[in-house]
Protein: ABC transporter substrate-binding protein
Amino acid sequence: MNRLLASAFTLLVLASPAAAQSVTVAVAADIRSNNPGVNRDDNTDDFALQLVEGLVGYNEGGVATPLLAEKVDLSADGKTYTFTLRPGVKFHNGAELTSADVLWSWTRYMDPKTDWRCTSEFDGRSGLKVESVTAPDARTVVMQIDKPNALFLDTLARTDCAMTAILHKDSVKADGSWDKPIGTGPYKFGEWKRGEYFTMTAFEGYKSPSGGQRDGYVGSKRPLLKEVKFLIVKDPATVKAGLISGALDLSEILPSDAAELKKNPKLSVVAEPNAVRHVFLIQTRDAVMGNQKLRQAIAASLDMDEIVAAFYNDLGKPNTSPIYSGSSYFGEVEKKGHVYDAARAKTLLKEAGYKGEKIVILANKRPVVPSFPAAVVAQQMLQSVGVNAEIEVLDWATQLDRFNKGNYQMQSFSFSARFDPAIAFEQFSGPKDKQPRKTWDNPEAQKLIDKLYVTSDRAERQKLVDDLHKRVIDEVPMIFAFNGLDIVAHAKRVQGFKPWQSKLRMWEVTLAN
Structure:
């Protein structure tokens, strides 16, 4: 093992950037392709979204906001969106962005041969259909959908769709096959050596959106670094060694390494919450767990501060709402959730008629998720108020299968990021008879969620979100505990870096002299 680490360390040293304004970033996996939204995963999306942009992108509140569009107008009937393009935006090859590029990109995405991740989101298969896309002039694009849908812009902005990136037609070869992304993003595609590294270089002709401040994928996005090299380093111990030695400038790290690296005078450690939600699922159709007072007792027995600390130490904070803490919909109502009260938990257990029936919590021991540590602390707290709780450890594939079949009493589980509240609630809500994986089967709540999908008025949407939050807290179909954290260590000479939603945004980042 020592020889292997030493060998990997030597590679890191050799890979250290020589240029003053270049940095080396460690990533745990290679990209799957350089074709935005095609053959992708989260790591691939992270890289692509530094190179390309869409008409709209998410701001830090999780709201789809104009990006390549200067403004977006919606017709009175909620079916026609008119995008006015920002003037003077250029592609990496120097060509100026026009509405013709939007039409070319859209036509390519909707061609089944492209195999774009999100074609089915817009062709009617998922309930939303774009009926026409036209370009009245060089700076105007009009998109007509079949019926009002409050999530249309949100779907365009989705990161797994690569922000529905607008590409130049020279991104493909003469025969129509893919070549490389020629986008409008702050960085240009550089070099890719599969299994070893991939790079991007500053686009000197980049025109940053106005605003002056970084804001999710919109706002100021200046490429202030000459080059960024993403080095594939799978072993966390090698990552830590590279950070300490200075061979690496920046990398995500394990929560367990944060305290040690914080003490290093040459390193900074930053932790930012993301939209991942760590939860305790409850099967309400179980003979024992179907008792609402019992579920309320379980919620009252959990000290969320202690549960968060079991995995994130002092870096994380509880959040018992289905709405993530950084959302623009996370208001005063969402801040009020489950409260730790052991005495109340014991009273509720008596009112529930609980007689010591065994309750099994399923968990897995993957190191990157808090499933098992959270389950251990929860078990201790439940036992302290009189609940006969046990933990069953499964491999992740088996636990996921049990989740999909609804075959459990409780699970220590995680839901992936969802920005818009409608999608966040839909992720776990619905009829169990049709979809056993659904956790909250409440027809009245589903009507409110359906209304969220078609309501565009911001104030009305907030009322619906507040109502749904209160219902989840009262009914306890599951217990939300805390949001995920992006924990990144970087050399102190790297300035201006801030992770967001598990993405390593390298714009607005500089190196100290």
Q: What stands out?
A: The radius of gyration is 24 Å. Confidence is low (pLDDT under 50) at residues 1-19. Residues 265 and 492 are 8 Å apart (CA to CA). The longest strand covers residues 267-282.
